Amino acid sequence: MTYSDFTIPELKKRFGLSVNEETNLFNHIAEVEIPATLADILRRWLSLSLNLNTEKARSELIIAPMLTEFKLLYSDKVSLFSGIEFDVDDAAGLRGRCDYILSRSPEQLALTAPVCVLVEAKNENIVAGIPQCLAEMLAAAKFNQSEGIPPFPVYGAVTTGILWRFLKMCEGIAYVDSAEYTIYMPMKIFAILTHIVINDRI
What is the percent of the chain with per-residue pLDDT over 70, rounded to a whole number? Predict the structure, then answer.
C-alpha cells in the first residue's frame, strides 16, 4: 500500500483520524506581494498552461514555478523536494513518492524535519487527491517526531495548478479547508505558504 491507495474511510479506521471540512483555515491571512519573477511567469505562461490543458503542463508551468520562487525567496529558511521517495512506515502503508515536499530548513542535499507536503491532483480532481495528501501528512507527522520535532500541526495542500486547497492536521483531527484558492489569487496562495512554512510551526 502507498499514499495514493488510501481512502478517507481507511485513514479514519487505521489511524483514528477525524475529518473537519467546515473550517475556513486561512481567511484571516492577508495577501503578500509575490516575487516579480513569479508575476512575470504567470503573466506569460498561465494562458499557455490552460490551452495545453494537461497535468504535465500545469505542473511544469504553474506548480513548479510557484514553489521554486517560494524556495528562492526564502532560500535561507526553506528547502524544496520534488518527486522523492518518502518511506516513513512501510507496515502502515505510509510509503511512496511525494510530488512536492517543503522543509523548514535550508539544507537541500537531504530532507530535514519539519516538512509540509503538496499533492498534484489527478484528473483535475482536488477532492480525489485529499486522501493521498492526508496519508502523506500522517507520514510527515511521524517523520517530524522521529527527528525530534514536537508534535506541532502538520500542513499539506492539493493542487491542480489552477485550484489550491490547503489542509491542516493537529491532535488527530484533519482540517480540510472549506475554501479553495485559484491561481488568479497568487498573492493569497503565497501568503498561505508563507504562513504555514515560515510563520507557523510545521
Answer: 99
* Average pLDDT over every residue of 122-146: 96
Beta-bridge partner residues of 106: none
Cell representation of residue 13? 479506521
Q: Which three cell numbers stand for residue 92?
A: 502502515
Most distant CA atoms of the chain, gap in Å: 46
Environment class of 154 (CB within 10 Å of its CB; exposed 0-12, middle 13-18, buried 19+): buried
- Distance of CA 52 to CAs 16, 59, 81, 125, 144, Å? 41, 12, 25, 17, 38
The distance of Cα 73 from the centroid of its chain, to the nearest Å, equals: 17
Helix axis angle, 36-52 relative to 64-73, nearest 10°?
Answer: 170
Amino acid at 186: P
Q: What pLDDT digit, counting tens, does each position of 42-76 carry?
A: 999 999 999 998 999 999 999 999 999 999 999 99
C-alpha distances in angstroms, 106 versus 17, 78, 79, 102? 31, 5, 5, 10
pLDDT of residue 91: 95
Could you please state the CATH topology (level 3) that the domain comprising 3-199 is classified under: tt1808, chain A (3.90.1570)
Are 111 and 137 within 8 A, CB to CB?
no
Residue 202 has pLDDT above 70, yes or no: no
146 Cβ neighbours under 8 A, 6+ residues apart: 88, 113
